[in-house]
Every structure is written in structure tokens, then in C-alpha cells.
């Protein structure tokens, strides 16, 4: 493949992937090479390559007749992702307090919350910033394998988060609650801080992700 053709395939891949993650192409939407090539202003060859890459990523699935659709977000997917996050993040949050690093982490987390507030009008950008907030919590482990678990599930995390916002999770309210979380961390108040984390991200976030 020539450098130019590879570049076009990469461009197609990034554009289609972002449209899947921000739900411009919603779960279950049929995709065709011809339509995408026309939409992207490209020939079908780089689009075909991009679609193969997205199939490898698990974002596009094919049926018996080779028809392509954006992968659905199933209830099982949501339950598994949230179970994974709770198993990793809640003990990490407690470790921040048990190791008496809550003041240090309050400032580190505040930086992420400021970013979330700055992009509040864009659900996709906000969700990327929200993931960075959660990654800051798990950084307490200093464990590259745990970091890789999050990176390996980044696409699903992003899609579920944007889906939650579109189904009723209120960005402004969440941001306000996270500002409170930062203040509770500064005070060393684990009980009130973790309640916000549980209620907003493992309560409301999970419930709205389940909504159709």
C-alpha cells in the first residue's frame, strides 16, 4: 500500500471511528463502503481498509450476508464494563484515602474536572475528559496492566458515556457534583466523596447507559 493510500485509509478510519464513538453512527446503523466513500469524498479502497480495521477493533460487525453494522451496545456489555470499573475504581478511590494522598489527588482530579467543565457543551469531548478523570483515580495503583485494561476498553467506555448523556445524564449537574467531590477530598471526607462517585458514575451513569 502506498504512503498516500495508507494515509487516506487512516483518515477514513479516524473519521468513521469518531462518528461511531460520538454516536453520529448509532449502534445498529448499517454501513456500506459506497455510502461512506461518498460521504468522505474518497474512493472505496481506503474506506474498505478502514472498515476492516474497525471490525478488528470490534466496533463494526458483519452478518451471514456480509452486511456491516455498528456494533450494538448490549445490556451485557454495560453490566460487564461497569462491573469492571467498580472492581478497579472503588478500591483505588479508597486507597487514595488510606494512603493519605487525598489532598494531592484532590488537585490532580480537580485539573480533570476543570477540563470537563470547559468542554461541557460537547458530549463527546466531555466523555473523553471524564475518562481522564477516572484514569486519574486508578493511577494510584501505578499499575501499567490496569492502565492497559482501560485503554483496551476505551471505545466501549466512550460510547457508553456518550449514550448516557444522550439518555439523561446531565453534564452540568455531574460537573457540579464533581466539584463537591474535590472539596470533600480536600477535607479528607471519604464517605461523602465516594458517595458522589457511586451515585453519579456507577448509579446514574449505569442507569442512563441502559436506557434505549
TrEMBL record:
<protein>
    <submittedName>
        <fullName>GntR family transcriptional regulator</fullName>
    </submittedName>
</protein>
<dbReference type="InterPro" id="IPR008920">
    <property type="entry name" value="TF_FadR/GntR_C"/>
</dbReference>
<keyword id="KW-0805">Transcription regulation</keyword>
<dbReference type="InterPro" id="IPR036388">
    <property type="entry name" value="WH-like_DNA-bd_sf"/>
</dbReference>
<feature type="domain" description="HTH gntR-type">
    <location>
        <begin position="6"/>
        <end position="73"/>
    </location>
</feature>
<dbReference type="InterPro" id="IPR011711">
    <property type="entry name" value="GntR_C"/>
</dbReference>
<dbReference type="InterPro" id="IPR036390">
    <property type="entry name" value="WH_DNA-bd_sf"/>
</dbReference>
<keyword id="KW-0238">DNA-binding</keyword>
<dbReference type="Pfam" id="PF00392">
    <property type="entry name" value="GntR"/>
</dbReference>
<dbReference type="InterPro" id="IPR000524">
    <property type="entry name" value="Tscrpt_reg_HTH_GntR"/>
</dbReference>
<keyword id="KW-0804">Transcription</keyword>
<dbReference type="Pfam" id="PF07729">
    <property type="entry name" value="FCD"/>
</dbReference>
